[in-house]
């Protein structure tokens, strides 16, 4: 006699137990601590914070540990946690000109006030496996110098002073909140930037790369890339002034793009903008390029049919938590839908075979 | 889970979802955008249905969760467990005992009542999506009742296959106004959508849409006069309970291509067998675990 | 030719229609009346504003000023510019039709020929598959497309066949006003002649009113009762086709007619 598959609950519990065991791995190897991940896998932690939209290195490290290093799974854990947190208030816009930079480079000027600061970058490392890291080895401390005090002005500010780059006026309106209101299209630029800031790094990298290869090319230079910490301030109505509640690390990228202009308007360079939690430079540059590509309408350019220009396409597909969930749901049972198609195909085939068997009678 | 509020979502979020539900009830078949939250389960796995259920649940509710008609499929088990843990509500597998039923891909066989709410999990709420990928354009088409294209698709089906080749997620028109996707239920279930005493709510989490069919709403499956809609099923009776009027799953039982057909609604099949009905391969009097 | 007595009310009246692109003029202060059964040609070189005008008339572009009044079946003369979007869309799929220069812009290339012709019928509520198919077959015959092509997609059709299919798709609901944008534009000369012949037959047989934009004087000579000549966004001359072509008054029209101007 046939017995329908039962015991889903037991199966799920056993699967979870097995998963936990696999996560731990060989018990002869010491267990990773959250602090180790936070300190030594910092770039993974940064990505999880950025795409999880929650600045908390400890929780991000915990999520990476729990997710066995699957960063999208870790981002998912952070997102699901974040959504339950109460909303206490909104901070004031962070002042990235006052950033304490650990890295600051410009591709457009050889030197500028504030200087070029290479910082802790992979850029000029030779990509040779360092077998010394196979063993535990102590790293000698890096040479130090005293920090140059004072704010580091934005490179684009110098261009702006001469009218050479299009001005970005400060908006008074409160930006919409993607996590509290449904995405409505067409979207404003603040909403687009918000979606890009938490969008999947790989997706944005691919889109940005496609613009460089000619799919809506916009001739981008990195006007400035800066990484460092900024203060987060919150207005306290009871006090009547803002207080600093945190310091966070950010990566900011401003690109200087192809100029626009006409007979009546003198040519000006245009901009793309990227701002991401943590040291996440690939993402910030990608974001700036995609932001610039999406601005075609506002800047009077043609829509070339390129994916990176297509707001609905980009915003609907940038979120890796949405994408991975929907992609993976096709492994859930679909036997009811499949059964209905199976019957349909059988019936249509039977009718077609019948018609073929008696061709004269058909028409 | 004590840190979480009743049914997981905070009260403000539940209020926001209830507002969307009310709007949906007021405009049957209209897709209401809502600020879908990130749930602790993946998008595409019922987050829309879960949010609608969370917003509707009261501590007195009796919850039933089915996936493909069955209470014991893994995702149904997982969602039921989620609400047991976060809301502490009573759960049941019996359709008649449930006050709220969350479903994926089926409508229960037993008739529903005015005291029940049926919540559907919806992957793609837009019935026009595969004819027109752009949201901006499909919303305009709904606003202007510009539905000619929908029938062009059905026309093309008949021209090519001799019949309308849509077997599930079969589009319907609600109260003569909005064309609606009933979620991927088999078209066998479509007639149950219309004139149902129960409130039917549809939640699409990833796509951020909620829509509704208030009780006793007229729902018509799209068709042609000379190619009318037919609610079809496998041409068999259930091999376990002998029912000839239920939607059936096909099960492969041996290497020689042997098959059997069983009710997809496990509760319905079980109660029939308990009442003494026996199908071709069933065993009389045998109780189901 | 017909209706020149002025006794009937105009089907379509345009007054002071103006469209600017920034400082540039698209078309300026265009006005005319079109009577039932009348075909009007609009000629001019590229950039003369004739396509802008046509798109403003058909509701594809929003003009900056003017009135576009259509004698609707139910409510009499209405300014289509102040109509609601649903009303305008309804008009566009019932009493109006638009034939694009490129048939790809006016056809659904992924849908069979029968589905293309049937779409407008279904959009206004036709729900009998057999009847829709019979009407589609009838129309394919009228535009000289073989009946056995009904389930083929237009992507496999020649340019001339695609254009004939577009015409059938547009005329199937018996529109009262047809806008045509260079309907013979992209076709070979021999194919053009056949299409023109077909169009002339349909126009006469159905008593269609039409507005045809073209740079080809042969097209208007054959199809149009009346002619409007445009230059730089302005109408420089209008009148009966034969009159304008045989005795052009404006210097630009004279150039156009003597074919000195390469248009």
TrEMBL record, chain A:
Q: Which UniProt keywords apply?
A: Lyase
GO MF terms, alphabetically ordered: lyase activity
Task: Provide the protein name.
Answer: Carbon-phosphorus lyase complex subunit PhnI
Q: What InterPro entries does its record include?
A: PhnI (IPR008773)
Cited Pfam families? PhnI
**Gene Ontology terms describing biological process:** organic phosphonate metabolic process
Automatic annotation (TrEMBL), chain B:
Q: Family membership, please give it.
A: Belongs to the PhnJ family.
**Broad EC category:** lyase
Instruction: Look up the domain of life of the source.
Output: Bacteria
- Its signal peptide is none
Q: Which UniProt keywords apply?
A: 4Fe-4S, Iron, Iron-sulfur, Lyase, Metal-binding, S-adenosyl-L-methionine
Q: Reply yes or no: does the keyword 4Fe-4S apply.
A: yes
- From the UniProt record, give one GO term of the biological process aspect: organic phosphonate catabolic process
Q: Please give the name of this protein.
A: Alpha-D-ribose 1-methylphosphonate 5-phosphate C-P lyase
Q: Which InterPro entries match?
A: PhnJ
């Amino acid at each position: 006699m046939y017995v329908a598959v039962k015991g889903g609950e037991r199966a799920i519990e056993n699967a979870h137990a097995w998963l936990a065991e696999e996560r731990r791995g060989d018990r002869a190897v010491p267990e990773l601590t959250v602090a180790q991940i936070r300190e030594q896998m910092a770039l993974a932690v940064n990505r999880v914070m950025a795409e999880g939209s929650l600045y908390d290195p400890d929780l991000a490290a915990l999520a990476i540990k729990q997710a066995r290093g699957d960063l999208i799974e870790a981002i998912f854990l952070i997102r699901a946690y974040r959504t339950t947190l109460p909303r206490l208030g909104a901070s004031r816009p962070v002042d990235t000109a006052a950033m304490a930079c650990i890295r600051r480079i410009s591709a457009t000027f050889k030197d500028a006030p504030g200087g070029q600061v290479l910082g802790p970058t992979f850029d000029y490392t030779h990509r040779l496996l360092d077998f010394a890291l196979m063993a535990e080895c102590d790293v000698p401390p890096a040479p130090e110098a005293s920090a140059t005090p004072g704010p580091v002005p934005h490179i684009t500010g110098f261009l702006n002073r001469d009218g050479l780059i299009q001005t970005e006026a400060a908006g008074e309106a409160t930006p919409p909140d993607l996590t509290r209101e449904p995405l409505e299209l067409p979207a404003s630029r603040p909403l687009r930037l918000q979606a890009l800031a938490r969008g999947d790094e790989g997706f944005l990298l691919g889109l940005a790369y496609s613009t460089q290869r000619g799919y809506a090319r916009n001739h981008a230079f990195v006007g400035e890339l800066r990484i460092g910490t900024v203060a987060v301030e919150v207005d306290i109505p009871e006090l009547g002034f803002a207080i600093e509640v945190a310091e966070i690390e950010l990566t900011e990228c401003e690109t200087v793009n192809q100029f626009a202009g006409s007979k009546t308007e003198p040519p000006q360079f245009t901009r793309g903008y990227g701002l991401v939690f943590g040291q996440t430079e690939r993402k910030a540059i990608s974001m700036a390029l995609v932001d610039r590509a999406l601005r075609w309408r506002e800047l009077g350019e043609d829509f070339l049919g390129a994916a990176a220009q297509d707001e609905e396409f980009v915003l609907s597909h940038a979120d890796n938590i949405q994408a991975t969930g929907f992609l993976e749901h096709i492994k859930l049972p679909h036997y009811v839908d499949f059964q209905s198609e199976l019957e349909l195909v059988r019936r249509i085939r039977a009718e077609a075979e019948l018609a073929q068997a008696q061709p004269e009678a058909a028409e | 889970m004590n840190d979480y509020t009743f049914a997981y979502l905070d009260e403000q979020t539940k209020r926001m979802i209830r507002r969307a539900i009310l709007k949906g009830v007021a405009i049957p078949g209209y897709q209401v955008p809502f600020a879908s939250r990130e749930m602790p389960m993946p998008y595409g796995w019922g987050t829309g249905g879960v949010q609608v259920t969370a917003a509707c649940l009261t501590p007195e509710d009796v919850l039933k969760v089915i996936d493909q008609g069955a209470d014991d499929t893994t995702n149904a088990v997982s969602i039921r467990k989620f609400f047991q843990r976060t809301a502490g509500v009573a759960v049941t597998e019996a359709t008649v005992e449930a006050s709220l039923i969350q479903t994926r891909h089926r409508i229960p066989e037993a008739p529903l009542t005015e005291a029940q709410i049926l919540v559907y999990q919806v992957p793609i709420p837009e019935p026009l999506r595969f004819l027109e990928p752009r949201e901006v354009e499909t919303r305009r088409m709904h606003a202007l009742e510009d539905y000619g294209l929908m029938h062009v698709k059905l026309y093309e089906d008949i021209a090519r296959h001799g019949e309308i080749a849509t077997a599930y997620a079969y589009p319907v028109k609600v109260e003569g106004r909005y064309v609606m996707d009933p979620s991927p239920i088999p078209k066998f279930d479509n007639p149950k959508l219309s004139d149902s005493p129960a409130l039917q709510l549809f939640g699409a989490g990833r796509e951020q849409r909620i829509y509704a069919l208030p009780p006793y709403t007229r729902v018509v499956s799209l068709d042609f006069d000379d190619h009318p809609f037919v609610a079809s099923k496998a041409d068999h009776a259930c091999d376990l309970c002998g029912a000839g009027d239920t939607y059936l799953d096909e099960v492969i039982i041996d290497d020689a291509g042997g098959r059997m057909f069983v009710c997809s609604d496990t509760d319905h099949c079980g109660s029939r067998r308990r009442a003494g009905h026996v199908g071709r391969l069933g065993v009389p009097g045998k109780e189901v675990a | 030719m017909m209706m020149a007595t002025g006794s009937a009310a105009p089907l379509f009246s345009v007054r002071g229609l103006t469209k600017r692109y920034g400082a540039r003029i698209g078309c300026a202060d265009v006005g005319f009346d079109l009577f039932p059964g009348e075909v009007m040609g609009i000629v001019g070189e590229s950039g003369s504003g004739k396509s802008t005008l046509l798109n403003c008339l058909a509701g594809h572009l929003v003009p900056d000023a003017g009135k576009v009044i259509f004698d609707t079946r139910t409510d009499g003369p209405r300014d289509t510019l102040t109509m609601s979007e649903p009303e305008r869309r309804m008009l566009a799929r019932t009493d109006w039709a638009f034939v694009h220069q490129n048939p790809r812009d006016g056809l659904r290339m992924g849908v069979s020929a029968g589905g293309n012709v049937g779409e407008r019928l279904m959009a206004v509520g036709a729900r009998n598959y057999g009847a829709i198919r019979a009407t589609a077959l009838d129309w394919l015959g009228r535009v000289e497309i073989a009946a056995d092509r009904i389930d083929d997609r237009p992507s496999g059709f020649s340019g001339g066949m695609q254009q004939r299919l577009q015409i059938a798709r547009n005329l199937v609901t018996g529109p009262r006003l047809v806008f045509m944008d260079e309907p013979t534009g992209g076709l070979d000369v021999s194919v053009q002649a056949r299409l023109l012949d077909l169009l002339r037959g349909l126009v006469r047989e159905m008593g269609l009113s039409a507005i045809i934009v073209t740079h080809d004087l042969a097209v208007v000579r054959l199809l149009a009762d009346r002619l409007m000549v445009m230059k730089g966004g302005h109408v420089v001359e209008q009148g009966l086709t034969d009159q304008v072509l045989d005795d052009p008054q404006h210097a630009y029209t004279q150039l156009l007619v003597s074919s000195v101007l390469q248009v």
